[in-house]
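Protein in question quoted for reference:
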Amino acid sequence: MKRSGLEKAVRKVRLAAALLTAVAVIATVAFFFLMFCLTELFINLFTGGWFSWVFPCVATAMAILALLALAIVTGGSYER
């Protein structure tokens, strides 16, 4: 049985939406990590300490878990 043009278009749109979502999530995590690295760098510039990967990694994990918890509590929707 052949698929109609509409079914093919719907499949392409769903695939594009899934890829866009994946890219957005990866970009958000990378942005969080880089901002926490920048924070760590500025703190160490003023305190004279060494750069450590511990703070950016832990802070990124905590931020992602907080966003995940918010999504679970709100049911995946930010509408009131």
Summary: The two ends are 44 Å apart (CA to CA). The CA atoms of residues 14 and 53 lie 37 Å apart.
